[in-house]
């Protein structure tokens, strides 16, 4: 059902990380000391359209899908529809969608925050949305900078080792039967390491 959801990360965003945040931050974490952060709970972000500062500590213990979004992307309708479906299906099980509009990619989010709020009402959005932000460059939110430093081993190549060769993948029972090479010579990663975790696996592109 959610095979097009990757458009949020690729078509709309042209990036692979999943947590771009507002450029407004509390005193808990500034742009100069984001490297001291231990978790996302050390950060805060402003709710959309003047909704006030939100400490991300409020999401502790929940599974969070944190995305940057745009209203003018070719996959906007599909993305918002699927995000709404995900939210409705899993919100009572501790799942949260946190959406952050961004205009850095092909100017696909040109409107005001009031425009964005009006637009998403058409999809019945009830998940949390935050103010428009930058996710790249010097103006990127500290959390975004932090996450890009943390992502290391999550980008893998298509190659697999002897745990599961290309000719016998049909015998696999779970993703834990596979392994992949970490990017840029980072070594072989057994996907068994992710057992017990909620994993979002996407293919990405820089262009």
Description of the molecule:
This protein has 207 residues and is an alpha/beta fold. The protein folds into 2 domains: 146 residues, Glutaredoxin; 41 residues, no CATH class. It is 16% helix and 14% strand. The chain has 3 helices and 7 strands, in the order βββαβαβαββ. The chain has a 3-stranded parallel sheet with strand order 3-4-5, with helices on one face. Helix 1 links the parallel strand 3 and strand 4. The longest helix has 15 residues. The N terminus is likely disordered. Belongs to the glutathione peroxidase family. Keywords: Oxidoreductase, Peroxidase, Selenocysteine. Pfam families: GSHPx. One of its GO terms (molecular function) is peroxidase activity.
- Give the second-level CATH assignment, the architecture of the largest domain: 3-Layer(aba) Sandwich
Q: What's the gyration radius in Å?
A: 18 Å
CATH class category name of the largest domain:
Alpha Beta
Structural class: alpha/beta
Global shape? globular
Q: Please, how many helices?
A: 3
Number of strands: 7
Helix content: 10-25%
Low-pLDDT parts are 1-28, 152-167
User: What does the average pLDDT come to?
Assistant: 75
The largest sheet is:
3 strands, parallel
Order of helices and strands: EEEHEHEHEE
N- to C-terminal distance = 26 Å
Question: What is the total number of structural domains?
Answer: 2
Taking strands numbered 1, 2, ... along the chain, how are they ordered across the largest sheet? 3-4-5
The name of the CATH topology of the largest domain is: Glutaredoxin
Q: Let me know the CATH homologous superfamily of the largest domain.
A: Glutaredoxin
Beta-strand portion reads 5-15%
